Amino acid sequence: MEAIITIKKVYNIPGIGIVLVGDVKSGVLKDKMISNIDGKTVTIMTIEKNRKKVDEANVGDNVGLSLSGGEYNKLKKMKGLDITFIEGNPDVGKNPQKSNPNHPSGFLGKLFRR
Q: pTM of this prediction?
């Protein structure tokens, strides 16, 4: 199974890492899906939709993805392009990055405060 997302913005958040914001163009996006960008494997660690962590996102959803294994500068240059994610190895991400305990709930909370 695969899913395609169009990149809108890319952030590098201390304590979280790289966060990609975009729209799901096709398929069902799930955590632990992988993509190959410039020879590096990028893994979706978590998905947020409307400031809430979700297990999957569907076509048309605007989502934030925390990623593991990508390079911020390369992803930032890909703004407006599509990335295809596929079902990954189930062992990927068993040791997720440690998050900052002082960080607000939800990795996009600080960026989109009302």
A: 0.75
